[in-house]
Every structure is written in structure tokens, then in C-alpha cells.
Amino acid sequence: MTNIEICQQIETELLIVGAGIAGLSCCIEAKEKGLNPILISKSIVGGASFFPLKATLGIQITGNSDDKILFQQEIERVACGVNNPKIVKAYVEESPQAIELLGRIGFNPWLRQDNRPACFAHYSRPIYLINQWQQSAKRAKQILANHQTLIYDQAVLLHIVTEDNQVKGAIFAQQKGGQIRYIFCHTGNIILATGGIAGLYQDNLYPADIIGSTHYVAYQAGVKLINLEFIQFIPAFIKPKYKVLFGEHTLKYLVKVTDSKGRDLFAHLSPKQFQQMVLQRSSYAPFSIDFQSVEFDLVIMKHLVENPTEKGVYLHYSPELYQDQTEFYQVYLTWLKKEMDIHLLQDEVVIRPFAHSCNGGIEINEYAETAVQGLFAVGEISACIEGANRLGGNSVGGCLVFAKRAIQKIVESTPHLFTKSKTHYLLKGMQYLQHLANQEKKSDLSSSEILRQVKVLMNQFANVYRTEKNLQFLITKLQQLEKDCSIDLTKMHSIEIYHAIKTAQLIVHAMINRKQSLGSHQISLGE
């Protein structure tokens, strides 16, 4: 048995976990409001928003005063009634002002000049674009240095210490000089900004280090997790280059979809029916049951579930694709060739659904507060303005609006009283982690191998095409992998991977419990 040893104790009025756009926004806003936060993260300036092209669809904000009602109605329409109208109202009211926060964390946003509505939107409104990720990351690091922010990088949150439903501290691990250091932070306020849960899938559009473990850490602390079943999947390339964003608008010029042996997957449709389906499917990116073209995604995913050796489906285009001179096509096709060396007529094109964005997570109110006093969630880890689906371009904007609101609430709140000693809270946190470490070793599988198996299983059975039979099978497999997962305190990500397995189980239970197909969630109860 290995004992956990705390090598350092620190204290702060605010601990921020995660250094993507959400965490950076919280940190800079806190410093400028007179707080002195400590920032911990696996990488300083990272997160899902820094994945190539992930945020290039932009940040959608409210237009003129007449747009306030329209925008709120649009957000709630695609949410299908499973989100919080107060949170939506806060976003609609404050998103235009929150854009300035991007500049304060190192970005140079600019306003898109066309009037094309965002994905799932019926009306156009201002959309800001951001790019130049490496330069922005360098600027963000310099800004943090100028603010003299205390940073612990290569760090993972392991446990939140609470008592009487209030935050009292946290334990995190940091890898430094080849050694694992366990650190206790005494604090009354924590902001979680560690991203979503798509990294629990083998095929995802996330950086590799985001695996959803913090959801379970927060769950253990007493928060409520909602809408976990609403995960957005979009097609992405398997070949000719893996994990490259696919332009769904090109489907307008699709003539056939086949398996690896050349068999037509839509032979049951007439040519006219096929063209109607792909034309509609070319108008939106993430999977949604709200269109008849849902058949495109379901047929493809059912084929992949029933044929697990198939890596994806093969797309065959008409030459008319490259004859389309509209800017929307030319910009994408030129980028695809110059930057990715992909030509949709000359190369073998293979796609499959990739986990993209998460609409659910930690339940918050309009100030990003959770059910636990002093615990906040900002960004994709939270169930924010989204519900069953989300409008394109609302994700990054939510980071900005609710970073400002969370800091506002913390500044205005009465400081928490610590009724017991720091040692008491430290020992309480260590007790949980020591309990994990004391569990008997169940198998010879490494934690990384177990995580790999979790991702493969989630990819196959908790993707677009879901059946209750497959989900029940998946729960059984995940429970067995949990039993096989040994906690090795000398390994940086051992406890984190255990927490990720527990998060995966919560996701699948949410999918099973949602009996109705809605938005980005589809389940076939009879299969």
C-alpha cells in the first residue's frame, strides 16, 4: 500500500481549474476585479477551443434590440425545453459586451462580414471570428505573467473538499521534474473550467488531455449533472487524413456513399430521394433528429456498429463540387488542399461521426454557481445555455459571459468562514484518495489501456445510433473496467482515469434514462 503524502499546502481566495478560453477569461477577469487567483491546468493555454478550426465558426452574439427576443427564442427552440431560460436571458443581454474579454486574454476577434445564419439558426446576427491560436496562446501566457498569476501547470484536480455543502479546499497532483507532487489548496471558491466529455470517445475533436474526469470530481462534491446525453457529433475525416474537420456543405454534391467494398449504403433510396437527403444534410453540421436527413447519420452509424471492422464510410462526389465558385465553397476547398493536402475528387474520402461538443454537464444558475456553495462551472463543463441542441457559435460566447458573471458573484459574496482547521480539511480530502489507493488490484491492465478500451466502447455503442440493448451492454463493460482499474499513486493520471471511467458511466446512464429522441440524442427503444 502506498500512502498519499501532501508535499505542499497553499491558500487562495479563488482556485481556477483549466486554462482554455473559459479558465483564462475567469483568471484575467478575477485579477482585474481585485482577486488573486491560483490557476492550475494540464497545459497553460489549451482546451478544446484551441483545437484547429474548432472555434472558427465564431462567437454569435445578440444583434440590435429587436434581436433579443428572437435570439432567446432561437436558443430555446433548439434546446427543446431542457435548458434554463434565466441563463439564456443572461447570455442574450450580455454577450455583446463580453466580447471585449477575448482581447484581454490575447485574442484579436473580428466581425464576420456575411449574413449567413449560424448552424440551426433562422436569423443572421453578429458573429465574431478568432484564429492564430499559437500567437494568441503566447500573448495569453505573457498576460498571465504580467499579472503575476501563480500557476501550477501539468496539474490535475483530484478531489474537492466540502463540508456542510460548502467548498473548503481541493487536492491536485502536479508532475514536476519527473515526480508526482500532491498539493492541498485551502480555499472557499473554485471555478471549474476543464472542458467537456467528448474526449471519452476514440474519435473526437478535442486535444488528447481532456477526458471528462472533473465531471465526476464535481459530482462527488455534490453538484448535479444534467443533459449529459446531449453530445453533438459531426462528420470528420478518417482518410486521407485523420481528425480533420469535414465541411458538411460539400454533401450537396455527393453522388454516393459506400462501404469499403463499394456497396451503396443508400441503395434503398431513389436518386431523387438521395439528392433531397444530402441537400438538406449539407445545411447543418452536428447530428440532429430535427430533420428528415437524420437518415444520413443513422444509416452510416448503424452500419459502423454492425460492422466494427469498418473504419468509416466512403464518399463519392460529383465534379460539380469544384465548379462552385461561391466563397463559402472556395474558402473551404482551398484551405483543405493547401493546409491539409486533401482533394475531395482525387483522394479516397472516408468519414465517420466524431464527438464534437457537449450540451450538458454541471448544472449552474445564471451566475455559473453550482448546488455547492463556492463551486462554479464555466465553459463546456457546465450545462449552460444549451439543451438538446445548440446554435452554432454559442460555445465560446458562454465562456466569456459566465466568466464575468462568476467573478462578479465571487467579488460580491461574503467570504466563507472556515470553522475548522486547515488540517481537518486536508485530512478529509486525503481520506477519499487513500480509500481509492487502498483498493485491491483487480487486473494487470494499465490505466492507459483501460482508458483506451473505454474510448473504443463509447465510440461504438454511445455514438449517434443508440439502442437500449447496446447501452446496457456498455454499462456492464464500463463497470468491469472500473473494477480492473488500479490506482497507482506514482502515475500522474491514475486517479484521473478512474474518475473518467465513472463519468463515462454517468453519461451512459443519462442516455438510457432519456427515453425520448430529442435534439442530438437518438435512441431506438425496441432494439
From TrEMBL:
Oxidoreductase recorded as keyword: yes
Keyword entries, A-Z: Flavoprotein, Oxidoreductase
Cross-referenced Pfam families: FAD_binding_2
InterPro entries linked: FAD-dep_OxRdtase_2_FAD-bd (IPR003953), FAD/NAD-bd_sf (IPR036188), Fum_R/Succ_DH_flav-like_C_sf (IPR037099), SdhA/FrdA/AprA (IPR030664), Succ_DH/fumarate_Rdtase_cat_sf (IPR027477)
Domain named FAD-dependent oxidoreductase 2 FAD-binding: residues: 14-396
Pathway participation: Carbohydrate metabolism; tricarboxylic acid cycle
Signal peptide: none
Cofactors named for this entry: FAD
Protein name listed in UniProt: FAD-binding protein
Species whose genome carries this gene: Seminibacterium arietis
